[in-house]
Amino acid sequence: MTAERATVYVVDDDQSVREALSSLIRSVGLQVETFASADAFLASPAWRTGGPSCLVLDVRMPGMSGLELQRELNAAASPIPVIFITGHGDIPMTVRAMKAGAVEFLPKPFREQDLLDAIRVAVERSQAARVEFLAGAELRARYRSLSSREREVLALVLQGLRNKQAADRLGISEVTVKVHRHHVMEKMKASSLPALLSMLRRIGVEGELGLDAAGPPIPRER
To answer: In this structure, which topology does domain 145-202 adopt according to CATH?
Structure first.
């Protein structure tokens, strides 16, 4: 179902359910780790590794419930997609779970294919989130590589100042401003100022650069 082998975490207090789901999920080439409780899952470091994954979660269990675990994960900003399974669900419970970001809410007994379809969707969502995270991390690393002077020049340029105006504002030569602009574009691997501005918006550093969140008019490339 995916080029990169994903891991499905199953949390259910019923051992027979865990064993049956583990066998089903392994049959389609995915890795599986099972847990008898929400607390056991939270105590495991495996799900924090950041690889493609999803969580198949029973709603009602002794101790922390599935919905409570979902809240814990959301509070921790965990990107792991959740699929709920339950033998005791109702509409309000389903609505709460879906509003909190669940991929699917399946009442027991459910068709095996329905669960596998939900897992496929969840894994694809996990992979997309991981790609987005890694791309953002790379952009943030590029931005951190800029010197303080390069960031000052960058802020003024994106506010619409020409090179001479930025030079006057900073008390440096116009040639120096051009050099800093070149270094910024090179370090950020940006092909144009609009592309650079898009990168900066993506990693949310407008405030640090003194820019409006909506973004300034695209400055001229000169």
So the answer is: Arc Repressor Mutant, subunit A (1.10.10)
